[in-house]
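Risk mitigation, structural track. In case the binding assays with adenosine-5'-diphosphate fail to produce interpretable data, a predicted complex structure has been prepared as a fallback.
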Amino acid sequence: MTASASPATATKNRIGATIIEARDVGKVFSVNQNSLTVFDGLSYSVRAGSFLSIVGPSGCGKSTLLKLIAGLETPTSGEIFFEGRKVAGPARGMIYVFQQYSKSIFPWRTVIENIDFGLQSHRKMPRKHARDLCMEYIRLVGLDGYENYFPYQLSGGMQQRVVIARALICEPKVLLMDEPFSAVDALTRAILQELILKIWDAIPVTILFVTHDVEEAVFLSSHIFSLTKAPARIHQDLDVDLAWPRDPIRTRAEPVFTQTRQKLFASIFLQEKGGLAGKPAAGAEP
Ligand SMILES: Nc1ncnc2c1ncn2[C@@H]1O[C@H](COP(=O)(O)OP(=O)(O)O)[C@@H](O)[C@H]1O
Ligand SMILES: [Mg+2]
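Fallback model:
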């Protein structure tokens, strides 16, 4: 797979078999003799090729869910499988893109050197070929012309593009993104949303995308998990029934968009106000 792969037009048909499966996962953090149960028997599956957003109240365990999949945290009980193999530490084929991109970019390296770092740590190849490949991913994220700039010479949105290109050059099967656009202004965010959909369409990658922004989740996703407060369970597991390709203006005007956003917002808002406990409640949606 390369960045120049022809765009898949039939986006709906790209969703395949289960790629990630969590079975009865528990996670308890202990700090100064206090313990916090973030998950208590959480099970779910993610299908290959999907764009799955994870939303839920602040502190419910969204980042922890991604870290457990990435092998950056270990479940206290239960198991997580990636392509049928139990996750035990960081797995090749999955890349975690952190919330604070400015902390994961190397300030002393240029754009192309930052992206090349992703390549060096994953694949050995002749330097000339490596440079050509870096340029391919630089074009994919719309940074051509900026390859010799240093991060301090770029806007926040451009730095985030560097981080995305560095992740993609490793050819991950799964991209785990933790609130990747939360630090940029609204317009840049809309542009980055279009970019990530373009990439998802062009490359056979599964994206797990944590966001606190319900609207962003509905716009981007093929599926959404809405979590309850900790101990978190999946309160809503939705297929987003909006046409592809998504359009920043037309899609947002569709009745299904508004209805889905309202439904998710209401469930999260009610929880913030204490309306829903983390444990299954009578009458809760599956
Ligand atoms: N390494 C850790 N040690 C102790 N507590 C943690 C750790 N990581 C997360 N937590 C706690 O777990 C809960 C869920 O955190 P997190 O997954 O970051 O929530 P979210 O991303 O949904 O805002 C929070 O109460 C947080 O304080
Ligand atoms: Mg978080």
